[in-house]
Amino acid sequence: MYFPYLRGRQFELxxxxxxxxxNLISNHIFPIIEPVKLSSTLTKTLKIYQENNRNAAIIYNPxxxxxxxxxxxxxxxxxxxxxxxxxxxxSTILKAFxxxxxxxxxxxxxxNIILIATEREDSVYYxxxxxxxxxxxxxxxxxxxxxxxxxxxxxxxxxxDNFIKRTRNVDYYNNPDEFYTSDHLYYKTDDYVGFAxxxxxxxxxxxxxxxxxxxxxxxxxxxxxxxxxxxxxxSDTNDDYTDTTGKFxxxxxxxxxWNKEKQLDTCAIKEFQKLYDEQTYPGLGTxxxxxxxxxxxxxxxxxxxxxxN
Length: 309
What we know:
By secondary structure, the protein is an alpha/beta fold. It has a domain at 167-180 and 204-304. The protein has helices at 10-21, 40-51, 79-87, 103-106, 120-123, 126-130, 145-150, 183-186, 244-262, 267-278, 284-308; strands spanning 2-7, 32-34, 56-59, 93-98, 113-116, 138-141, 156-159, 177-181, 194-197, 216-222, 228-234.
């Protein structure tokens, strides 16, 4: 099972919502959403997953964004919190929590949740919290020795930040094609029940964007041995931040030419082709949305085909 871990910004949420609405993902996909603010887009996305009987989880003690260090409270008078409380009553929508010493005080139940362990010093609290009597539904954790020693449950999920984040988009220019991961091939062999990552966004979080000097489109694909790689399509005229539309077409043309050989046919790739044919610029948020959608749909297909075989 694949657990894409995304922050609850507008275009990440729309990506997840459209994947469910268009029936592009299977039950092999279990998105984890870390909300950065309470919004109607957040609740609408979760409701779509609920209505389509698809799995998803929302982090109740987020660590980034406007809700950092806040606890989403089911008893809050906030309308969106009330909606979340109703949605998480459904079996397909789970609550998730970052592992911390005080988790017993903030989680109403400890078994039917997703636990996220990313801090080595907090992993030592796992056995004090669970006392070997029960365990979380799933535990996302890095494949590191301290985590493996401290967290010994049956439902561990391998969490990795596979996307190599560059300081500037133009920095991808000299490294257009990179290894992304082979976790999807070996997670079971390594004694995990699933794998997780931060898609082509990466774990680094920034509050706001800015006009880039270069436009980048990040597209994952499988090589001949089914390892996943990522190709970066970068604009050429990158001396200043003017003419973002022209830069987008430069990057998009490279993607379209490259795909004549690769023949990727996800919904997102078809949308990129349509944008190229119609010479339409959708905005950088939509570009990111399509890259995420492509990644998740591609992994969903791979896992579905692997199960059939």
